[in-house]
Amino acid sequence: MSGMVQQRTLFGRDLEIASQYSPEVAASLYLGDRLDLLRSIPDGAASLIVTSPPYNLGKDYEDEVGIGEYIEGQAETIAEAVRICAEDGSICWQVGNYVENGEIMPLDIVLYPVFRAHGLKLRNRIVWHFGHGLHCSNRFSGRYEVILWFTKSDSYHFDLDAVRVPQKYPGKKHYKGPKAGQLSGNPDGKNPSDVWIMPNVKANHCEKTEHPCQFPIALIERLVLALTEPGDLVVDPYIGVGTTAAAAVLNGRRAAGADIMPKYLEIARERVRQAAAGTLPRRPLDKPIYNPSLPNGGHR
Ligand SMILES: C[S@@+](CC[C@H](N)C(=O)[O-])C[C@H]1O[C@@H](n2cnc3c(N)ncnc32)[C@H](O)[C@@H]1O
């Protein structure tokens, strides 16, 4: 196939990165508009569509438009995402705030009705909390963004065991009653909850590239592990420097994504190759958050 690069992969055969959508390859990275990529993917082919769209803030990769036009553009993307989503699949939209004249407009609130109009079911509104960002002087500084997790039906794939986190008190036992002496928590770990504390990818983060708004690999890995199975297709319509594709390939899933910026797509290709080769710099999902009051910041 033309435009394909080959590399050793976790899939146990040569990694193929296609420049158009192909069901045969580990990763399809398309240079161009998200609708062109999405329209080339068959109905129901994707188990997970996960993305962080432009927030309409006038970054170098987007033209700032009125909020109505922005929502219309998102509605076109969402309609295609719904079409390619498998019956037991999921759609995750990671968004922050659109800001106009100091007024914030949370994009999850603005976009929720668009998803709902397609009959999607909201399973979680995940709050992603991070410690660093702009310091505001006229309002409280923003330190979270949101992931809206929707499913297409009531029969959806969710593997909690794949994403359990350590119990706070692992050996804790019931001290009275019929279960006295038995472990009070699941020894395999607990549900990670709907508040995820992970550093955002700023200057000294090991995953940082020249992209101004990449999300951390771990954020997407947790979704990939919980909502898909090995071999499944994960699609990101606004793939940036390929974080979603890296998270998918690292875990034996297939990926497809689009971006209009050649420089970001080039980095995405390289990161996918590194992910397959095991050389991609990444902050592991289970690495504790730095705590200045603990020895070595609480790191092992
Ligand atoms: C918030 S960034 C996503 C970053 C990505 N999550 C990552 O970790 O690298 C949004 C991306 O959408 C891309 N973009 C903007 N308009 C687009 C369009 N019409 N089709 C595809 N990509 C687009 C931008 O170039 C930008 O890289």
Features:
alpha/beta; disordered N terminus; 300 residues; globular; 23% helix; 12 strands; binds S-adenosylmethionine; single chain; two-stranded antiparallel ribbon; Rossmann fold; 6 helices
| Low-pLDDT regions | 1-9
In CATH terms, the superfamily is Vaccinia Virus protein VP39
What is the CATH architecture term?
Answer: 3-Layer(aba) Sandwich
Over all CA atoms, what is the radius of gyration?
20 Å
Oligomeric state of this protein = single chain
Helix content: 10-25%
**What ions, cofactors and ligands are bound?**
S-adenosylmethionine
CATH fold field value = Rossmann fold
**Class per helix and strand makeup:** alpha/beta
Topology order in helix (H) and strand (E) letters: EEEHEHEEEHEEEHEHEH
How many structural domains are formed by the residues? 1
**How far is the first residue's CA from the last residue's CA?**
46 Å
Count the helices. How many? Answer: 6
Overall morphology: globular
Tell me the strand percentage band.
15-25%
CATH class: Alpha Beta
What is the number of beta strands?
A: 12
Neighbour order of strands in the largest sheet: 1-2-3-12-11-4-5-9-8-10
Helix-strand blueprint:
Blueprint: E1 5-8, E2 14-18, E3 27-31, H1 34-39, E4 46-51, H2 67-84, E5 85-95, E6 97-100, E7 103-106, H3 107-117, E8 121-129, E9 144-151, E10 195-197, H4 217-227, E11 233-236, H5 243-250, E12 254-259, H6 262-277
Parallel strand pairs: 2-3, 3-12, 4-5, 4-11, 8-10, 11-12
Antiparallel strand pairs: 1-2, 5-9, 6-7, 8-9
The chain binds S-adenosylmethionine.
